[in-house]
Design a protein that fits this description.
Elements (H helix, E strand, L loop, with lengths): L2 H35 L1 E6 L2 E2 L3 E6 L2 E5 L1 H13 L2 E6 L5 H6 L5 E6 L3 H4 L3 E2 L8 E6 L16 E5 L3 H9 L5 E5 L2 H9 L5 E5 H10 L3 E8 L7 E4 L4 H16 L2 H16 L3
Parallel strand pairs: 1-5, 1-6, 9-10, 9-11
Antiparallel strand pairs: 2-3, 3-4, 6-13, 7-13, 8-11, 8-12
Length: about 270
Amino acid sequence: MNKKIMKKIIATLTLSAVLFTVGCVKKDDKADGGDKKNKIIVATSADYPPYEFHANIDGEDVIVGFDIEIAKEIAKDMNVELEIKDMDFDGLLAALASNKADMVIAGMTPTEDRKQNADFSKIYYTATHGIVMKKDSADSVKALEDLNGKVVGVQQGSIQADMAKEKVAKAKEIKEVAKITDLVLMLKTGKVDAIIMEKPVAESYVKSNNDIALTSVEVTDETGGSAIAFKKGNTELVEQANKTIDRLISEGKIDQFLTEANKLAEEQKDQ
């Protein structure tokens, strides 16, 4: 056979093999991308009953709560799998920015500062705030200003932290701590005199701890309730979440989820 013809045949076969290989790689990449689209990752801080908390269900540690049920409904409406990641509250928005999560649901208030770093759904629940103290001193506080001169505990990065700095400016100290569970322990051991937290959360912890109590003070959430956070620019997911929230509100499911989560949190204290 002519050497020139032979070289052309070999070159053609080599090119075909390369194109076939490239085609296979692209097909695999597409498959990987397809898998990712079938799941949404939700970041939360599961120390905040009844919104989100750890529960022992049939011998397994499971993250449950009011917020988690809403996340499940969003995933159901999207026909995708739901993965839940537990982390400190003050790291939640960073998880969105670094693509470690698709959305954050953690009883989070969409403040103006937070809106600079994330997009938010519509408000799905509005709660008031309460003050938790040791039972024998709870009656001594009749107004938020009565906490001046005391050591006040709040969750780090929370709306309550801003509230304390603004309305209890003469506090002896404002201690910001990552976990609510640690704050409750600090209250019990005298490291803080009071904790400011959302009232449903406060009620849950008071039911589980006989030596602490809510004061009579109730603070309105002036900045506007809880919403779900998303990475900036993810309008499609925001719109889907809003549709689910509208449906849940119209069906009365939001109040139902809150009631059920409170009941489950109460049951867990005996385990």
